[in-house]
Amino acid sequence: MGGEDERRRFLFVAMPINHFGERVRWTLDLIGAPYEEYTVGGLISAFLRGRSVPQLVDRKSCSMIGNSDECLAYLSAAYAPSIADTRLRAKALSFLRFDEQTMAWDVKLNQLGHLVQGWAYFYVLALDMTPEGCLTAWGAFEPKVPLMHRLILKFGHPFLRKFMRLVFELSNEEVRDRRRKMIESILDEADATLSKQKFLAGDDLSHVDITFSALLAPLLGARLVFAPKSSYANGRFSSFNGAMDRMSDKWPRALLEFEQSLLKRPCAKHCISLYESLRSTQL
Amino acid sequence: MGGEDERRRFLFVAMPINHFGERVRWTLDLIGAPYEEYTVGGLISAFLRGRSVPQLVDRKSCSMIGNSDECLAYLSAAYAPSIADTRLRAKALSFLRFDEQTMAWDVKLNQLGHLVQGWAYFYVLALDMTPEGCLTAWGAFEPKVPLMHRLILKFGHPFLRKFMRLVFELSNEEVRDRRRKMIESILDEADATLSKQKFLAGDDLSHVDITFSALLAPLLGARLVFAPKSSYANGRFSSFNGAMDRMSDKWPRALLEFEQSLLKRPCAKHCISLYESLRSTQL
User: Fold this and answer.
1) Which domain holds residue B80?
2) Which end of chain B is less congested by CB atoms within 10 angstroms, N or C?
3) What is the pLDDT of residue A2?
């Protein structure tokens, strides 16, 4: 029973590359929330259990929050006000503020998240691509993913790929181009905002900056997620370290080219600087 | 499929007399949240499914919140900021504010809720009492309770009563007296506060006043919950209307006497006035 009592308050469930998950994980890390993480293989939870990840379980109140927006909202009201350290509490409440500025960005970034997913999958799941890219992202080579999930990914990826190509309309180049245009337009807006102020929602850091960085990270594969020493998920996934070098030409050229141009943008520099300065610390 | 889309965002699950549930239900009503309610028989959910009520399900984010404190916190951050009507939104956010005053009261009222439960059950579940009182409170005569639950209550109440007497230490008069003393002390504090300001957490209504009223209601059986026209749960439970007259001497005399003295307190008047003025309206 002692072991039960000592369990951490939160259980966080996510898959390896999971940009909406990374914003919640990063928030949990920044506000010092006591949690443990359970990693599932990419897409498997949605397919086998009909529940998408991320999910945040609060053992204290027997609650389960099923969407990243609501996870942050829940943490802001049901956890942050009870942080004992008054300095950290004030910082956490400011970080998780929901005002007009942060809420307007949250809507745009929600859209950005889905656009990044749809646009990048066009290339990663293209018919002429080898499966290494998606298998790496979904965690087929990741020790933190349960063995059974890794086996399902290794043998089931042709089916998953076919299904994803259908639901995300990945054969349609018009949809792909429209997605890219919308991504660029949100990035333009982020660049413009950052030319006027230090952070996306004002002069202080907020969850919006972290959300933005977490959503953009998958487009910074070489520089960030699959770098020799990956800072994504605070280095949780050892299979990501050096994955880009290992994959070499098995990662879509179009994504590498996009990454090169993206790196010149102020908003991408903002993202990388936040990963460098804030990914392994508390507020 | 159309029917699915039109379902209300929230599903609220509670048992008939459920003071922690009533604070969430009343909040949902006041802030105009779109919800439907599912009523379960008293204690049955805890016994058969290992999950206590109330529970709030958010269909939008596939979330399930399992504790009344966290339900209110969730509504404050994940629902109230998105209310379209700006006037109602401002009122809802003020009502659901979590500041030092409301948080200090929330801790005390959580305690009050459990004390009221334990103290009232001492009499309602006494060995020499007929089961009418607990059966009425648990919903054995309530059409909104599923038939199977009503049957379980009607035939299983001796077992439920025995179990409750054990876990709540209902044979121990010392525990009973300590509970009553602690109840009186919190009521004294509420009286003192209301002599200085209009509402428990300042000059404006907050969820603290509603919580207080919902928790006190079961001790106002004749005047409120089982009155000829019950305003408890906004009149949801038709079996509560006139239940006190029907039960007559089957309701514990000690509770009726306590109610008489309670009615003289300013805090009980506050509770009744809120039930009269705010139980069937929006903020």
Assistant:
1) 2-95
2) N
3) 39
Clarify whether residues A86 and A132 are in a common domain: no
What one-character-per-residue DSSP string does B111-174 give? HHHHHHHHHHHHHHT-TTS-THHHHHHHTTT-TTS-HHHHHHHHHHHHHHHHHHHHHTTTT-HH
Q: Is A283 a domain residue?
A: no
Residue A69 structure tokens? 């927006």
Percentage of chain B exceeding pLDDT 70 = 95
Coil vs helix vs strand at A218: helix
Q: Is the pLDDT of residue A1 over 70?
A: no
- The alpha-helical segments, DSSP class H, found in A197-252 are 207-216, 243-247
Answer whether residue B72 is part of any domain.
yes
Counting the structural domains of chain A, the total is 2
| φ, ψ of residue A206 in degrees (nearest 5) | -140, 175
Residues A146, A217: one domain?
A: yes
Cα–Cα distance, A173 to B100 (Å, whole number)? 55
Final residue before a domain boundary, out of B30, B60, B95: B95
Given pLDDT bands bounded at 50, 70 and 90, which one contains residue A5?
very low
Domain final residue pick, A44, A74, A95: A95
Is B35 in a helix, a strand, or coil?
strand
Residues B79-105 have pLDDT tens digits of 999 999 999 999 999 999 998 899 999
The residues, any chain, with a CB within 8 Å of residue A215's CB and separated by 6 or more, are A19, A20, A23, A109, A112, A113, A116
With CB atoms and an 8 Å threshold, state whether B77 touches A81: no
Q: Tokens 């960085």 label which residue?
A: A213
In a domain, B283, yes or no: no
What ipTM describes this predicted complex?
Answer: 0.85
Domain co-membership, B88 together with B64: yes
The CATH number linked to B26 is 3.40.30.10
Structure tokens at B7: 């379902």
Does residue B253 fall inside a structural domain? Answer: yes
| Backbone region of residue A10 per phi and psi (left: phi > 0; alpha: psi in -120 to 50; beta: other values) | beta
Using CB atoms, pick whichever of A61, A76, A98 lies closest to residue B65.
Answer: A61
Q: Which residues of A touch B51 (CB under 8 A)?
A: 62
Position A44 scores a pLDDT of: 75
The residues of A whose Cβ lies within 8 A of any Cβ of B are 51-52, 58, 60-67, 69-70, 73-74, 76-78, 81, 98, 103
| Mean of the per-residue pLDDT values of chain A | 93
Q: Say which of A61, A76, A81 has its CB closest to residue B66.
A: A61
Which among A52, A69, A77 is the nearest to B73, CB-wise? A77
Residue A6 has pLDDT above 70, yes or no: no
CB atoms within 10 A of CB B117: 18
Return phi, psi of residue B78, to 5°. -100, -15
Instruction: Give yes or no: residues B179 and B236 share one domain.
Output: yes
pLDDT of residue A3: 45
Are B54 and B154 in a shared domain? no
pLDDT at position B49, please? 64
